[in-house]
Amino acid sequence: MSKLLKIGIILLLFMALSMIRFFEESLFYDPLLAYFKGGYLEENKLPTLQLWKLLVSISFRFWLNTVISLVVLYVAFEEIEVVKFSILFYAIAYIILLGVYFYLLLHYDPSQYLSLFYVRRFLIQPLFVILLLPAFYYQSQIKK
Fold it and tell me: Which of 11, 63, 81, 129 has the greatest count of CB atoms below 10 A from its CB?
């Protein structure tokens, strides 16, 4: 695959990730969106949540971002080993982050709202692809 084609596909995939973010309010159930836009300043408690619906929605969003991120990594490096490692990485991150997120929701303390904010951020945003791309690039350069 030519470099220009790779760059074009990767840009389209990043646009897809951006669209998920742009349409997040209509695509996903997440009452914490408004809360973290400023509601936490006015209230000492979380908004009313349908916990299981929230966890399913967060999970769906995480895996949707993950699939697109895996395609980005495959197109960038064209190595199945990169994808295999990334799947394992994403699965472990998902299990740990969702567990911590669930715990923070059940034991919410207003003074610790930033912990909930950042764990949620790692679940709903494709931050890992931003870390994995340069890491795999660096590794490929060392191999050469």
Answer: 129
